[in-house]
């Protein structure tokens, strides 16, 4: 959560700085309107997006005598699990931050709803006159002219006496036609839900000012002279301020509005600035978005003794009698299990010591003898020696996301919050696999992550080293073909 807050505020700040120095003084008002609205949504949602990065493969060397390697004991000392801190008695309850957020958000939403209710009630029982696809609401008191959606609120006395300048009506009509009230409500909603980002208040001010630029531009597109309109604008400086949700002719920052009216348009400069913004957005997206890595088990340089055995060329081929004993032993320790389809699958089950003996025979086989195993659909292989590899802090923090990772800690399925009890340096080994198709059904995560702590790694190390040989048989037998018990 803290990471999200920081990234969101930094992103919104950078986009606001880019607007202030590049776009605010340029007369590309519609582009600026879209940019400000998109920048708010962009900075609030982008930290929630996850980008998949290419897999990270780390090469680690393993020496000839892995069991006695100094790095095992050294790593165990360096990465020994730290005692889990006990929560202090005077610590704040875990629900308090969420409660505080909810109370503030509810208060801001209620304020916005109350302001809308005030505007809606203000037109109740008033005389309403149609005006160029908008509606004029005639108010009994001397109020400032303002608009909300397609309703324009004006003093009834000034309307009856025809004292309202056409420029003011044209200005408010532009607010109504361009639906500026939608922008205002959208901004107020974001401020209420993401109130912890104070920069949204600056976005609100920039959006409201840009609305005035657009409405002023609509007035000056007609027969009104710039100087005449500027004098009219200055005459309204002391007018009463309207509600925060309304668009009013006498909106502040008159100096900036006067300057914008006389700003020259340079299409080349505008194009360059738009191109810079187009480049800034993807760069910022890559920097702020969460990143996940398709981590693969580190490739290891196998010991010299193992490389020599695995690369045997056949000079030490086993005898025919040893081959018969090899196949007879596998058959002896094969158990046949009937599956749901009525077929019988062979399963090889024997002690690790016997598996190691058969693997020693397998190492001496010639290529032709190994081909005999493949013909009989027998597979013999030995896994690499387990080596410690701690994740980076960024990877470790990503693992806590329940929408991406399912966690198996020390061979037990645990909630992602269990990782809060550990540091990234407490992890000795991890293995990540992506789920596809039917495997995703009923799961909220996309990756299955197996993690071993230093303590568990050290505890099971000897057993894993001595039990690395895997012997399997592929294929199936019908019930008639399966050997009977006792044979």
TrEMBL record:
Pfam family, one: Peptidase_M56
Bilayer-crossing regions: 6-22, 34-51, 99-120, 184-203
Keyword NAD: no
Start and end residues of each Peptidase M56 domain: 151-260
Presence of the UniProt keyword Membrane in the record: yes
Keywords associated with the record: Membrane, Transmembrane, Transmembrane helix
Disordered as annotated region, ranges: 296-317
PANTHER family reported in the protein's UniProt record: POSSIBLE SENSOR-TRANSDUCER PROTEIN BLAR, SLR0241 PROTEIN
Protein name: Signal transducer regulating beta-lactamase production, contains metallopeptidase domain
């Amino acid at each position: 959560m803290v990471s999200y807050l920081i990234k969101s505020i930094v992103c919104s700040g950078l986009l606001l700085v880019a607007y202030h120095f590049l776009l605010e003084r340029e007369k590309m008002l519609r582009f600026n309107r879209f940019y400000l609205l998109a920048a708010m949504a962009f900075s609030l949602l982008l930290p929630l997006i996850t980008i998949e990065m290419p897999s990270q493969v780390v090469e680690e060397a393993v020496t000839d005598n892995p069991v006695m390697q100094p790095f095992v004991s050294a790593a165990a000392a360096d990465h020994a699990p730290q005692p889990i801190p006990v929560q202090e008695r005077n610590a704040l309850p875990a629900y308090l931050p969420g409660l505080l957020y909810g109370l503030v958000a509810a208060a801001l939403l209620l304020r916005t709803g109350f302001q809308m209710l005030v505007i809606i009630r203000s037109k109740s029982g008033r005389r309403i006159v149609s005006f160029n696809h908008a509606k004029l609401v005639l108010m009994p008191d001397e109020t400032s002219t303002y608009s909300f959606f397609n309703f324009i609120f004006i003093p009834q006395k000034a309307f009856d006496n025809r004292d309202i300048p056409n420029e003011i009506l044209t200005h408010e009509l532009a607010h109504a036609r361009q639906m500026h009230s939608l922008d205002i409500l959208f901004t107020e909603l974001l401020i209420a839900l993401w109130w912890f980002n104070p920069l949204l208040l600056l976005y609100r001010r920039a959006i409201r000012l840009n609305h005035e630029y657009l409405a002023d531009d609509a007035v000056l597109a007609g027969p009104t002279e710039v100087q005449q309109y500027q004098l009219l604008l200055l005459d309204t400086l002391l007018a009463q301020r309207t509600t925060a949700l309304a668009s009013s002719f006498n909106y502040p920052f008159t100096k900036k509005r006067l300057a914008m009216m006389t700003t020259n348009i340079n299409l080349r400069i505008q194009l360059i600035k738009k191109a810079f913004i187009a480049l800034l957005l993807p760069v910022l997206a890559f920097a702020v978005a969460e990143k996940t890595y398709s981590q693969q088990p580190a490739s290891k340089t196998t010991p010299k003794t193992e490389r020599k055995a695995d690369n045997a060329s056949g000079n030490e081929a086993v005898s025919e009698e040893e081959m018969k004993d090899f196949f007879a032993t596998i058959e002896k320790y094969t158990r046949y299990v009937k599956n749901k389809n009525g077929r019988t699958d062979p399963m090889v089950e024997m002690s690790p010591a016997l598996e190691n003996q058969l693997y020693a025979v397998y190492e001496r086989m010639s290529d032709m003898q190994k081909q005999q195993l493949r013909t009989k659909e027998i597979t013999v292989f030995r896994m690499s020696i387990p080596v410690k590899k701690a994740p980076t802090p960024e990877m470790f923090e990503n693992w806590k996301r329940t929408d991406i990772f399912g966690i198996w800690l020390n061979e037990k399925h645990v909630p992602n919050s269990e990782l809060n009890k550990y540091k990234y340096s407490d992890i000795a080994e991890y293995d990540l696999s992506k789920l596809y198709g039917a495997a995703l059904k009923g799961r909220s995560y996309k990756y299955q992550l197996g993690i071993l702590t230093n303590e568990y790694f050290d505890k099971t190390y000897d057993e894993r080293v001595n039990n690395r040989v895997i012997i399997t048989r592929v294929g199936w037998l019908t019930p008639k073909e399966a050997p009977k018990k006792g044979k």
